[in-house]
């Protein structure tokens, strides 16, 4: 029998887990709304509340993204991307609102040589050694 097992590349998470502390009364109000069927669970309520606030401040966020010249969304930097920057004798000033990821095969040396500054509002996915190599370039 032929074994048709293929190793899949791990999928990047499409969300980041956060922890919040709420007072008992606020938590009780949320539980009541869940119990009454307004929301499917606490997470559904919290996500909805966050989205409502983001919608409410959408104009300010849009202007701020433009003013700070942030890349919006997901931005991945492969080893080949950074080697091309290095070959051109340039450096990157990475500014991302969303998710910035640096490939696992990027060495700390290559990251230091090609990334002059790193400003991520959201999440940064990179190896611990690359994060350590860039820690003094992050704001």
From TrEMBL:
Transmembrane segments: none annotated. Signal peptide: none annotated. One of its GO terms (biological process) is regulation of DNA-templated transcription. CDD domains: RHH_NikR_HicB-like. It comes from the Bacteria. PANTHER family: BLL4998 PROTEIN (PTHR36215:SF1). This is CopG family transcriptional regulator. It comes from Microvirga vignae. The lineage of its organism: Bacteria, Pseudomonadati, Pseudomonadota, Alphaproteobacteria, Hyphomicrobiales.
